[in-house]
Amino acid sequence: MQLAIQLIFAQVGAQVGIDEVLNNGTATSLSIADGWNKQWLDLLQNNTTNNLYGALTNLGIFFAVGTLLFFMIQFLKDLISYEYSRPISALIWPFVVVILLSNSGKGSMLSNLTLGVRDFLNTVNQQVVVSADAGKMYQQALNMSIAEEVTGSFLRPCQSLIGAQQNQCFVSAADKVNILLQKYRNTYGRKIWINRLQTKLDNIRYNKGFISEISFNSLLGSTVQTSIKNFLVSLQYAFQNLIEATMLLIAVLGPIAVGGSLLPVAGKPIFAWVTGFLSIGIAKISFNIIAVLTATVIVNGPGQNANADPDLMWFIIFLGILAPILSLLVAAAGGFAVFSAISNTASLVKERI
């Protein structure tokens, strides 16, 4: 899914060449993914006695010691009122807190569990993406929506020329675009949307007159439209990075949530922490599912119709704005359900023990 930025550099492509336009996005996305993985390991597993997670673990222990007084008061009160049954079950919490916050320098039980859950969510997310995007629909739809922008960036300088100079400019631009189209064919095969763009390009290059002025102007586009598309694609890429950053932020705040769980309240902070962590994972998976399904509709719809000439600006807007909002709403609903399930389970266990 990180291939979303692969072809957003429409104007840069004219300067650095087709190969770099195609490959830089992939290399950048892979390096950022590796950077996030390294950050997770550095914070939650490597030298946790001296890093930020270690400091927050000490803060969580401080909270646990501070709230232990309130816990003991409630414990004695329950001991008098409930004839041992509930107080004994409540003794589980101090042991849970001690076990989770014990820091050996190579990560605590809590940090290792957090990394395990994160890896599980990433594995599920990857399986969803691979199974739903077997035909590279997401990448295809994105390239469909941006390919004309890339083509327009090469053809646009020819508008100011006339006569033989303009024809020579069209020929030179078409040669560059043909390299891009051939790379599309190598990646996706001989798709109808690629042939449709090839036909438009050939009509302009050989001055066949088969392309209307409206289609011609649409193909050339404008620098403003290109900038807007680049911004929106960058926005959805920023959202995916924000999801990673939020998951990491919630992860490092785990010790504080565990330390505050000795407070004698019904809604334990650890439940809210687990809910928040799982909710962000749901948002990440939801965004990818929404993006892939929408891309599949585009590729199997206008992408397979030789007579269609779709304006896919809506798809870029959907990716950059609407899909993140929708995935967060789904995550909020899912998080509420998870929190209710955890709270009800905890209450049930407490009554049975």
List the helices and strands and how they pair.
Elements: H1 10-16, H2 18-44, H3 52-81, H4 85-90, H5 92-101, H6 109-132, H7 137-155, H8 163-188, H9 192-205, H10 213-220, H11 223-252, H12 254-259, H13 269-300, H14 313-352
What keywords describe this structure?
353 residues, mainly alpha, elongated, disordered N terminus
How would you sum up this structure, described in words?
The protein is mainly alpha-helical and 353 residues long. It has helices at residues 10-16, 18-44, 52-81, 85-90, 92-101, 109-132, 137-155, 163-188, 192-205, 213-220, 223-252, 254-259, 269-300, 313-352. The longest helix is centred in the last third of the chain and has 40 residues, at 313-352. It is elongated. It starts with 9 loop residues before the first helix and ends with a helix.
Fraction in helix: over 70%
User: What is the CA-CA span between the terminal residues?
Assistant: 46 Å
Question: What would the average pLDDT be, to the nearest integer?
Answer: 75
Radius of gyration: 28 Å
User: What is the count of β-strands?
Assistant: 0
Kindly name the structural category.
mainly alpha
Shape: elongated
Question: Beta-strand percentage?
Answer: under 5%
**Count of helix runs:** 14
Biggest pleated sheet: none
Low-confidence stretches: 1-28
Q: What is the string of helix and strand elements?
A: HHHHHHHHHHHHHH
